[in-house]
Design goal:
The chain is α/β, with parallel strands linked by helices. It has one domain: Deoxyhypusine Synthase (3-Layer(aba) Sandwich). Helices cover about 45% and strands about 10% of the residues. It contains 16 helices and nine strands. The strands form two sheets. The chain has a six-stranded parallel beta sheet, sandwiched between helices. The chain has a three-stranded antiparallel beta sheet with strand order 3-5-4.
């Protein structure tokens, strides 16, 4: 449809009803304008991704788990609506607080941080975390976890998170309060895009000083991630924020096509919820259309929606919409298939090597 003609649905004179469902509310958004319309379109596109059995990656930047959003991610995993994840180390680290019953509380953002420091309270905007009872307790858990693992061979962050989920399932007080544990149960790979930029990596330091070395196989990670896309008939990303998680998932297209010459074409669908804007030139605000020039998405005109909104407002609406009207999907259990997917891509590369 030519966007330069007078076209489209009539804008309704919106009426709200106390008996309205989340589907009704999303229809209100989708039939309106501005970012409300974008949110409605994003929710419907997520539903389409599920209906078409696309392999869905969830990327999570920043620190969403301290506000409890790990519970939403867990539910999406259990329903088969998330097949693999790329996130920050912060989200994995702080999610484990809930599994082990370590205190995280609502606080305030209008405070004297010098006094909070004196009271051993760590602040993430308006969320409070105790320095000793939470952070130091979590540090001990992580240090104990890595003390006997990953010192004799290279490892990936998917293996790191899988072990973390396993140990939380076996020993945590509330294992049901962790999307990392759910990922372990459903074989959902969880990759940490920059693990050294988090407390998870900081806790490796005490063992390194004692002579233990750790070797992160980050190249295997990027090949595994590309192999997931290469094996998928259709694939899509739901991006919460931007940052390195966003690019980690999107760069699968350039790896497959620009580097390995597989002519895969990139993602079929991408949804992005962000408060970053494109005019500063940063990746977080880069438009999804711009990604087409890199081969990150197959079509620069369809299959993508950007919602300029606070993730803490938009994500629950989008998630509840698909949870309300989409049937549970059989889990793809990609974690257990990673070795085979890696081998499939490797075999194809050497069977059909790129011309130089």
């Amino acid at each position: 449809m030519d966007p330069h003609t007078f076209h489209g649905k009539d804008i309704p004179h919106i009426r709200l009803d106390p008996k309205m469902t989340i589907e009704d509310l999303v229809d209100v958004f989708a039939n309106s304008g501005f970012n409300g319309r974008q949110l409605g379109d994003a929710a419907k596109l997520y539903a389409k991704m599920i209906q078409e059995d696309a392999t869905i990656c969830l990327t999570v930047s920043g620190a969403m788990t301290p506000v409890g959003f790990g519970g939403i991610i867990k539910t999406l995993i259990e329903r088969g609506f998330v097949d693999w994840i790329v996130t920050t180390g912060a989200n994995v680290y702080h999610e484990d607080h809930f599994a082990w019953g370590l205190p995280v509380k609502q606080g305030s953002f209008d405070v004297d941080d010098m006094k909070l420091y004196e009271n051993e309270i760590v602040r993430i905007r308006d969320v409070y975390i105790k320095f000793n009872e939470t952070l130091e307790a979590q540090d001990q858990l992580v240090q104990k976890m890595v003390d006997k693992h990953f010192t004799d061979r290279p490892f990936t962050t998917a293996e790191f998170c899988n072990l973390m989920g396993k140990l939380s399932k076996e020993g945590a007080k509330y294992p049901e309060k962790s999307f990392v544990t759910a990922a372990y149960d459903y074989d959902v790979p969880v990759y940490i895009s920059t693990i050294k930029d988090s407390s998870l990596a900081l806790n490796l330091a005490v063992h390194r000083l004692r002579g233990k070395t750790y070797s992160l196989d980050f190249v295997r990670e990027i090949i595994e991630q590309a192999a997931i896309i290469y094996d998928s008939e259709k694939s899509g990303i739901l991006e919460l924020g931007g940052g390195v998680p966003k690019n980690t998932a999107q760069q699968t297209g350039p790896l497959l096509d620009q580097i390995l010459k597989r002519n895969d074409g990139g993602q079929d669908y991408i949804i992005q919820i962000t408060d970053a804007h494109p005019d500063t030139g940063g990746l977080s605000g880069a438009t999804l259309q711009e990604g087409k020039s890199w081969g990150k998405i197959k079509d620069a005109h369809t299959g993508m929606v950007t919602v300029y909104a606070d993730v803490t407002i938009a994500f629950p609406i989008l998630a509840l919409y698909v949870l309300s009207n989409q049937n549970t999907r059989k889990p793809k259990r990609l974690y257990k298939k990673l070795n085979q997917l890696y081998k499939n891509l490797s075999d194809d590369y050497f069977k059909n090597p790129p011309a130089h």
